Amino acid sequence: MNPASRDISALTNGSTSDGPRYGEITECELCENERHCTDRCGMLTCPACQADFLP
Known about the structure:
Elements: H1 3-11, E1 25-27, E2 34-36, E3 38-40, E4 43-45, H2 47-53
């Protein structure tokens, strides 16, 4: 496996699904705005909501 593939695989947990990927703009499950959201506590949330509402 080439190093670039390994890095991408680590970011996506090896997933090849059509779901949101690291760095894509997605809808925050709390504020419903489209931003650069990441998975935290099992929810796709934006950095602002993560800071305000999640541990």
